[in-house]
Amino acid sequence: MNLSLDQISVKQVRGVSALKEGELHAFGVFTVKDLLEYYPYRYEDYRLRSLSEVKSGDKITIQAKVIGIPVLQRYGGKSRLSCKMMAEEWMFTATWFNRHFLREQLVAGREIILNGKWDQQRMQLTVSDSEFPDQGIKKGGSLQPVYSVGAKITQAWIRKTIGQALTQYREMIPEILPQELLRKYQLLPRKKAISIIHQPEDTQEGQQGRRRMVYEELFLFQLKMQAFRSLSRGRMDGIVHTVENSAIREFVRSLPFELTDAQKKVELEILRDMRASYCMNRLLQGDVGSGKTIIAAIALFATVRSGFQGALMVPTEILSEQHLRSLVRLFEPFGITVGLLTGSVTGRKRKDLLASLQMGLIDVVVGTHALIQDEVFFRNLGLVVTDEQHRFGVNQRSVLRRKGYNPDVLTMTATPIPRTLAITSFGDMDVSTLTERPKGRIPISTYWVKHSMMDRVLGFISREVDQGRQAYLICPLIEESEKLDVQNVIDLHIQMQQAFPSYRVGLLHGRMTPAEKEEVMQAFNRNEVQLLISTTVVEVGVDVPNASLMIIMDADRFGLSQLHQLRGRVGRGQHASYCVLIADPKSEVGQERMKVMTETDDGFEVSRRDLDLRGPGDFFGTKQSGLPDFRLADMVSDFAVLEQARDDVSELLSEASFWTSPSYEPLRHYLQQEQIFQEDLID
Ligand code: ADP
Ligand code: MG
């Protein structure tokens, strides 16, 4: 059998020594395939221009004739070489720095190709690159690929080596996309596309090559995600929840409000998954305040009524205490027992809890990371819900899942993911979206003010508090130092106590013990504290409906999604609510971010604008986001292609012939390499 390019070491390419091979490894290049897919990120234009059409300052390539006698000046260890040239009917001076050895070659009458920066006024070209046609042309007249290089790999070397690899192996580049798709989109064959990405005749040709490979990249990515999903769906060994509709209805009737239409729709989607024999792997996204918690409660109720245990994992202790309280209130009338497991549950209490969980005496457990420790066992875990998903790594979620036998998994996030990112980063999950907030909410008015208006802001605080409301004052992030942040929040707390002697002013920060934090939050909850000075520990999910004012100091130091999360702490009751951003941003982007906040309080809109301002790479901030790292494709500008590829893949996978027909063998081979057939499909 012939080797394929991913089985041939890059060492087989002529000119790649053992030493160079090692250096290529640092760039992730191990095989000939890797090298051929090491694409340039731009091209340098060596196409010949005419001096009649160039502007001063342009980087140009022209063909000329030597007409003068070269003049060499030396100063220090450096040199400057000048010579009169003629191009068409123009005479000009070509100047080289530190290329004294060229002097002998500048013979009058000889043709030369020059690349460099043009100075119209002096009629002078500062040459960065030159070659003589009588020695064979390498760059002149072409587009030269520019690769990301470094260390001991130079641009010239990688160009030559990739060129060499193409000469040796071009014929072995396999086609992988089905012919019908190539025809449908008039895509170049793979062999041709890869060749011209490295060596395009012109920009348009380079674009054609890129277009083909971008499609392929997005197609394969979608194939991986969708095959993964459909195969895990195909596994019929998930838990079948058998809860009766009447039981669910009874629970929903017990709620103090009516579900929104969006909540009803999402509820059905989740129950359908839970009742099916495949494993649910669903993402529930909804703006802050859209009512995700109640959906989680319904799902947990459904698992318990089907005879299983449920777990709700949240990122902070404050949040787990809060969820515990709401679940106890909701579940108590139905005789469902709820337990709490966090780092602060210790000693006897912890022992008892762990034992009850294992014996099945506790139906629903709420907790933090503590839930995924080795000592935690369930009797029969049926559903895992994780809240504020962006705080957990994929691994942590799958550890919790393994604590049962294929439990259903519901992941909730309040960072609405723009459509662009949803289908890329969560292509392996089904997505439910809460598209509306409960009725009767008064929109939050957001204002952006300068620091100089702090007095007015203080006046605003008294107005709200005197009307019986409560306020948050969020302290700026100084830098990546928690210690400084804490100092800062303590100082601000003192100032505010002085400014408002008649109010109780609370303090909350990350260095307090969980018990201390809980105490402050409880006091705020009961309106025993009117003004809460805090770092961003209140960001996630805290629910105090009587709070109507959110003030954020140095708001420009926070990211947009964080600002939106913070703002979501108010506007949770029937009172008109306000968010005040105090900031004097210097950068345009900073000002733009403040404007976005004042213009919309729709989380989807906020993240869309955030994506525009920051680009997808920064959007999630961490590598853990699961965002794929594409070589050529750009998730924003190539979004239409991504959607196309998604539809094409889903059509292809719906045909039974995909798994048998020889024409799809390369795609099946790709899936195999991506381990899509492994037993451990779900994680
Ligand atoms: P999220 O977690 O999505 O930010 P929550 O679940 O905390 O939002 O809900 C925000 C508030 O809205 C809570 O006080 C909750 O009780 C309330 N709520 C949820 N659903 C509804 C509804 N359908 N009608 C009225 N209020 C609701
Ligand atoms: Mg929530």
From TrEMBL:
Helicase ATP-binding domain ranges (all copies): 273-434
The Helicase C-terminal domain is annotated at: 453-612
Alphabetically sorted, this entry's keywords are: ATP-binding, DNA damage, DNA recombination, DNA repair, DNA-binding, Helicase, Hydrolase, Isomerase, Nucleotide-binding
**Which PROSITE patterns has this protein been placed in?**
HELICASE_ATP_BIND_1, HELICASE_CTER
Q: Name one GO molecular function term.
A: ATP hydrolysis activity
The GO annotation for biological process reads: DNA recombination; DNA repair
Q: Which CDD domains match?
A: DEXHc_RecG, RecG_wedge_OBF, SF2_C_RecG
Database matches in Gene3D superfamilies: Nucleic acid-binding proteins, P-loop containing nucleotide triphosphate hydrolases
UniProt family annotation? Belongs to the helicase family. RecG subfamily.
| Task performed by this protein | Plays a critical role in recombination and DNA repair. Helps process Holliday junction intermediates to mature products by catalyzing branch migration. Has replication fork regression activity, unwinds stalled or blocked replication forks to make a HJ that can be resolved. Has a DNA unwinding activity characteristic of a DNA helicase with 3'-5' polarity.
| Name recorded for this polypeptide | ATP-dependent DNA helicase RecG
